[in-house]
């Protein structure tokens, strides 16, 4: 990334997008400033681009990666008087947003209707807001999100079939589609049930619990066990389960998918490792770590990575493996890290950096992963709370 370049908006809301816009670049420069690799001059133009227009603050537009929550998340890493004042205002608003979205979500559960992915997922939903409140230490809001996630895991009956409470009528594109009759069950960390699992488990590690929380963790883990293919180092999980597959109790295609943070075995394994730690279940923790180790050793799976991004490319795999290795029961995962970092570097040498500056699909996420590999500080240890990777 050219650190001296002036930000150039590419679409409405670009500034407030942590995923693909200026907010992601601002996060990079804020973290770099904490490590001494940047001064505040590098952050200023990106922070200014982030807050240039009216901040998106409507509840339906407020997901962790867009609008007010994204801006607030970045500001939490910029310890200036101006940022502190702005955060106080944003936090008060986000408490209201969370209450509004929880009221609607709990009413939906009361009606017995299936959820949309955007109701509960990490990117757009209440899991993402919960991750923000965990990051900021907002106990009341986090408690209420955790209580909702416990309710989300209660089974639901749709067309006389008993399904998990997170089963959605949406397609993977986050809207209903005739191509997905009966909806689907989403296992991924970005949009599926592994996101709530990671938040429930990480909250336990930090001493935040609500009634039924461990039962909910066990219920999610049981469903993930149902859809695991293989055992030991050959275990893997699909990103999605169709209604027909759920009815049959078997996957249509029994081949591992792309080993990404967002939908792949790495993100799902990290969530289950966190669950094992939260439950004191060493066997579950070890199974998750073995599955990830097998994935990292499988060149057929690795060959499916075609870009360097944090969301679904090499940087995301490196970051996920690094966080999982740090909590692992042995050094097997850590032994894979030098090779993974070399593969990321090889990809960048061959294909170069992406065009965008965003955290998830652009250069900022890649630079943050490489910075975290070089520098170990409290800030580099927590920036990926928005990914639910930081323990």
How does this structure look, described?
With 391 residues, this protein is mainly alpha-helical. The chain is built from 16 helices and four strands. The strands form two sheets. It has a two-stranded antiparallel ribbon. α1 packs parallel to α16 and α9 packs antiparallel against α11. The protein is globular and about 60 Å long. The relative contact order is 0.11.
List keywords for this structure.
391 residues; two-stranded antiparallel sheet; mainly alpha
Contiguous runs where pLDDT drops below 50 for at least 5 residues:
none
> How helix-rich are the residues, as a percent range?
40-55%
The overall strand count is 4
- How far the N terminus sits from the C terminus, by CA atoms, comes to 28 Å
- State the shape: globular
Q: What is the number of helices? A: 16
Characterize the main sheet: 2 strands, antiparallel
Gyration radius over CA: 20 Å
Strand order of the largest sheet: 1-2
Helix/strand/pairing category: mainly alpha
Mean pLDDT: 94
Element pattern in H and E: HHHHHHHEEEHHEHHHHHHH
Indicate the proportion of strand residues.
under 5%
């Amino acid at each position: 990334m050219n650190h001296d370049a002036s930000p150039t908006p590419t679409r409405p809301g670009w500034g407030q997008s942590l995923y693909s816009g200026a907010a992601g670049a601002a996060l990079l420069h804020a973290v770099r400033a904490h490590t001494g690799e940047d001064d505040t001059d590098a952050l200023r133009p990106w922070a200014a681009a982030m807050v240039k227009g009216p901040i998106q603050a409507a509840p339906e537009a407020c997901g962790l990666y867009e609008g007010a929550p994204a801006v607030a998340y970045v500001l939490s890493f910029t310890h200036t008087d101006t940022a502190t004042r702005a955060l106080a205002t944003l936090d008060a608003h986000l408490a209201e947003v969370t209450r509004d979205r929880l009221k609607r979500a709990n009413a939906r559960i009361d009606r017995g209707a299936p959820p949309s992915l955007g109701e509960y997922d990490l990117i757009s939903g209440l899991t993402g807001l919960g991750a923000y409140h965990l990051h900021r230490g907002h106990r009341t809001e986090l408690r209420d999100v955790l209580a909702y996630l416990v309710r989300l895991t209660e089974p639901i009956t749709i067309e006389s079939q008993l399904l998990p409470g997170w089963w959605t009528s949406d397609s993977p594109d986050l809207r209903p589609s005739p191509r997905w009759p009966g909806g689907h069950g989403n296992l991924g960390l970005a949009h599926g049930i592994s996101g709530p699992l990671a938040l429930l488990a990480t909250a336990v590690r930090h001493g935040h619990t609500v009634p039924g929380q461990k039962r909910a963790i066990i219920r999610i883990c049981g469903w993930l066990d149902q859809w695991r293919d293989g055992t030991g180092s050959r275990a893997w999980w699909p990103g999605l389960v169709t209604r027909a597959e759920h009815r049959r109790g078997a996957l249509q295609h029994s081949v591992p998918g792309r080993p990404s943070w967002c939908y792949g075995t790495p993100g799902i394994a990290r969530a289950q490792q966190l669950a094992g730690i939260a439950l004191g279940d060493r066997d579950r923790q070890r199974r998750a770590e073995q599955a990830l180790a097998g994935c990292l050793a499988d060149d057929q799976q690795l060959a499916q990575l075609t870009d360097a991004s944090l969301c679904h490319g090499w940087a995301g795999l490196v970051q996920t493996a690094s966080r999982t290795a740090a909590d692992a029961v042995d050094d097997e995962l850590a032994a894979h890290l030098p090779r993974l970092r070399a593969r990321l570097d090889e990809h960048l040498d061959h294909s170069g950096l992406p065009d965008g500056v965003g955290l998830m699909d652009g250069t900022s996420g890649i630079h943050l992963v490489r910075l975290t590999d070089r520098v170990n500080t409290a800030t580099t240890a927590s920036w990926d709370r928005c990914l639910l990777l930081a323990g």
